[in-house]
Amino acid sequence: VARISEAINQGLTAEAAVSQVQNGNRARLGQVSDAYLRERLLDLEDLSMRLLRHLSPEAKAAKPNLPDDTILIARAMGPAELLDYDRSKLRGVLLEEGSSSSHVAIVARALGIPVVGHCVGALSRIDPRDPLILDGDRGQVFIRPGEDVAAGFQRSIELRTLRKGLYREIRSLPSVTLDGVPITLQINAGLVIEMPQLQEVNADGVGLYRTEIPFMVAAGYPDLATQTELYRNVLDGADGKPVTFRTLDVGGDKPLPSFAVPPEENPALGWRALRIGLDRPAMLRIQLRALIAAAAGRELKLMFPLVAEVAELDRARQRLAREMDRAHALSIAPASLKTGVMIEVPALLWQLDALLHDIDFVSVGSNDLMQYLFAADRNNGRVNNRYDALSPPLLNALAWTNGKCRAARVPLSVCGDMASRPLDAMALVGLGIESLSMPAQAIGPVKTMVRSVEVRRIAPYLEQAMKSRDHSLRGKLRAFAQDHSILLEDNLG
Ligand code: PEP
Ligand code: MG
Are 489 and 422 in contact (CB under 8 A)? Predict the structure, then answer.
């Protein structure tokens, strides 16, 4: 703001001043080697584009009504700008800059809009109205595709539409296996705009509400009032269905624009999630206070991420108890409180008896549990595909955890990515896990699998297979699904 004012005082128009300052930002931040700071440049680009739109009538008019089936191409884009476009016309976004962790990608994912980033030179190589194929699954873009490529994609789009129709048909049918085992299916969410999906896919609730997402897309640190309103909107949006809020899970691969974590050699093993909450009591206190206030008179379900030992949980719970006492004194307490823990750090597996003694529920974060069990950074492309979720070590760890939870009568659910893949979810059901949480788009495919599987057949098969020396049971389980007519996404049509 100071630089823009200075440029205006020196005689530039407001529009020219914004452009000049943004050119300066681009030149400066473009050189920075730190990826996090470079990404902030995109936020500044977003801000200046919005300023320009307000300032100049031409720029205002420059955002036309989108034609049908638009793919938006931009050098960079901020999350706020994406929300300005008509979502019913937008089929995809192509960015010259930006990565899967950029804010626009986070919001686009929440809205189910495919985004492909890092497409250097896209703007100069693509003309308006050029036909494009954007494959968000594989991060590929085909410019003016040949007929054979277009026909191949057309076929896969038709299949996808067909499958969506099948999922709509089973929307109101129960999620229960062929032999009568009910499987709870919940959604993972992180933005209020995702809440309508809960009703759309008819899920049982929100099994993981990632509270850090709004923090990641906001420029400033949300204060108590902002957080309270946000969580209240989430609960209102859930319309009586349960919502499991996870306290802030930042640091590591989740940077906050408003809270700088000092650079670390091993961010995945570093200062993140509850560790920050315990070291910065005000952050945790404000969030707990906001969650409690938002849930006043209703049920509050909350869980702590990245708990490594029970003593750590106890410290967090003491703070929670203090906030609950305060809420009771002010008569703004939730109607009930359920406290849970995410199982993500292997150390906790060896303290399950103590943990399960007085906890209301646990939720397995298989993404982190895998990265720590296998010592393989989930964001490092060289190692993150080396180990499979359907490997005997991970499945044995989950079987052990589930057995302990059943014995202690503590509900367990899985909310990591594996729960969203039908074949992996089949294995989880085979282990006896009866509650899964996943992105809303996965509910249809996973429910389809659930309704075609028999626990009494898959369970003994899996128990034997888990004793093998195999790297992964994926091939065997896929063959099992084939032999037993279990419906997975790729054998549906
Ligand atoms: C997980 O680790 O599996 C999880 C659900 O948490 P996140 O992916 O947000 O780290
Ligand atoms: Mg995690």
Answer: yes
Residues 74, 84 contacting (CB under 8 angstroms): no
**Tokens found for residue 320:** 């929670």
CA separation for the pair 65, 86 (Å, rounded): 8
Report pLDDT digits (tens) over 306-360: 999 999 999 999 999 999 999 999 999 999 999 999 999 999 999 999 999 999 9
Distances 478 to 216, 343, 466 between C-alpha atoms, Å:
38, 27, 15
Identify the burial level of 28 via C-beta atoms within 10 angstroms of its C-beta, where 0-12 means exposed, 13-18 middle and 19 or more buried.
exposed
Nearest to 451 by CA among 485, 493, 415, 412: 485
* Closest to 313 in 3D by CA, of 376, 364, 362, 370: 362
Please state, in angstroms and rounded to a whole number, the distance separating the CA atoms of residues 288 and 116: 36
Q: What is the pTM of this model?
A: 0.84
User: Residue 437 and residue 361: Cα distance in Å, rounded?
Assistant: 14
Are 408 and 440 within 8 A, CB to CB?
A: no
For residues 48 and 200, give the distance between their C-alpha atoms in angstroms, rounded to a whole number. Answer: 36
**Contacts (Cβ under 8 Å, ≥6 apart) of 374:** 386, 387, 393, 394
d(CA 315, ligand 2 centre) in Å = 20
Instruction: Output the CA 253–ligand 2 centroid distance in Å.
Output: 10
245 contacts 230 by C-beta, under 8 angstroms: no
* Pocket probe mutation, ligand 1, options 211, 276, 368, 398, max atoms within 8 Å of Cβ: 368
* Pick from 427, 343, 435: nearest CA to 392: 427
252 Cβ below 6 A of ligand 1: no
